[in-house]
Write a structure and sequence with these properties.
mainly beta, 28 strands, 4-stranded antiparallel beta sheet, 2 domains
Length: about 375
């Protein structure tokens, strides 16, 4: 019996064609219907492949880059005459987006960056959801304490937000990811610092004045290694203020004479805190974050089904001698499970369940922003 190629009238020429006997059926279904269903399935599969293949786990956009003053400001990324805040955000995006491999400095305490992804990062129960890379390193040697992990650790506080209004912009409510310093009595919440533009002839040791909301003040000095203006050139105001969580100082002069500083790592929960990959301490999940650490402004645990935006700001206000001010640096960020599916929970709710995590092999329970051990004792 001869075979003819039969194509339904009006079908596109690039659609798959099937050779069937004239007037016969496929699996008991008239050929025309069979062809229609197969063509539809083929097109849906192709569309799904295109959609899935277009998703990247890496951050794709920088919405805002507003660093505090610091020795790497105006150079990482480089400011050029005429650059605006929007231009600098684009430069930060060029350095970081799509796994580009560049770096952005956030300056002294409070300086921040806001970035987003081309998809929602799903909060997978019992798993770390997000990795943020920096340039932290461990010290090769330490003249005193050889047990505590430290080196060049410049911790940044991480906040997250969900695009609840669906406009693609980071203008919804923000939640902080509570790290290991959440219950430390030296952690200061709702802290505020204002930095003032320096005079052209300001002395190096009293270069940029800062004042906080607790009546304290100090200076960011200028060092001999970086001689450019430390105040962001694209900011026209004579001062800039930041509000957030200030972490305790983590730097220590281990030499006793100002020649060897070690910036000690906090246990977990901060950007640029531990090295990006820690082969000797895989249980630390270096640079990884769990959306279940989210707390609201009252420091209450909040469950978020997923996030779209991330804000990182420098979390420590200190100067370590010749090293200068402590400033968080960001080199990348990515979704740890980009193929995860969203849950049915559509909006954030206050969590009534404690979050259980492992820290140095010990069970730690995070309940409304407070850490407890397995016996219920507050840490």
């Amino acid at each position: 019996m001869g075979h003819n190629r039969t194509i339904k009238a009006g079908a596109e020429r690039d659609a798959p064609a099937f050779c069937v006997p004239n007037g016969e059926k496929i699996f008991g279904i008239p050929f025309v219907l069979t062809y229609f269903y197969l063509t539809f399935a083929f097109r849906m599969k192709t569309l799904l492949f295109i959609l899935l293949s277009s998703v990247t786990p890496y951050l794709t956009r920088v919405f805002e880059y507003r660093p505090a003053p610091g020795q790497f400001i105006n150079t990482i990324p480089t400011w050029e005459a005429g650059d605006t805040a929007e231009d600098m955000a684009l430069k930060a995006q060029d350095a970081l987006a799509d796994n580009e491999g560049g770096m952005v400095s956030l300056g002294s305490w409070g300086g921040y960056i806001v970035f987003g992804f081309d998809h929602e990062i799903i909060n997978v129960p019992g798993a770390y959801d997000l990795k943020i890379l920096g340039n932290a390193t461990y010290a090769m040697s330490n003249p005193n304490d050889t047990t505590a992990l430290g080196g060049s650790s410049e911790p940044g506080v991480v906040m997250v937000s969900r695009d609840d209004n669906g406009n693609g912009l980071p203008d919804d409510k923000w939640y902080e990811l509570a790290g290991s310093e959440e219950s430390n009595p030296l952690t200061r919440f709702k802290y505020k610092v204002t930095y003032y533009r320096p005079a052209d002839n300001a002395p190096a040791d009293q270069y940029i004045l800062w004042r906080d909301n607790e009546g304290n003040q100090g200076y960011l000095p200028k060092n001999a290694y970086h001689t450019q203006n430390y105040f962001p050139e694209w900011i026209s105001d004579n001062s800039m203020s930041f509000t957030g969580t200030r972490l305790r100082d983590n730097g220590k002069d281990e030499s006793g004479k100002g020649s060897y500083y070690v910036l000690y790592c906090f246990d977990w929960g901060y950007a640029d805190n531990h090295p990006n990959v820690v082969a000797d301490y895989p249980e630390r999940h270096a640079s990884e974050f769990d959306i279940d650490w989210a707390v609201n402004s009252k420091r209450e645990s909040v469950h978020l089904p997923g996030i779209h935006f991330v804000k990182v700001y420098s979390g420590v206000l200190q100067v370590c001698g010749w090293l200068g001010e402590t400033s968080t640096e960001i080199t990348n960020a990515y979704d740890l499970h980009p193929n995860a599916q969203p849950t049915d929970l559509a909006s954030p709710v206050k969590s009534t369940q404690p979050v259980k995590i492992m820290q140095d092999g010990q069970l730690v329970i995070l309940r409304q922003g407070v850490r407890y051990n397995a016996q219920g004792q507050r840490l």
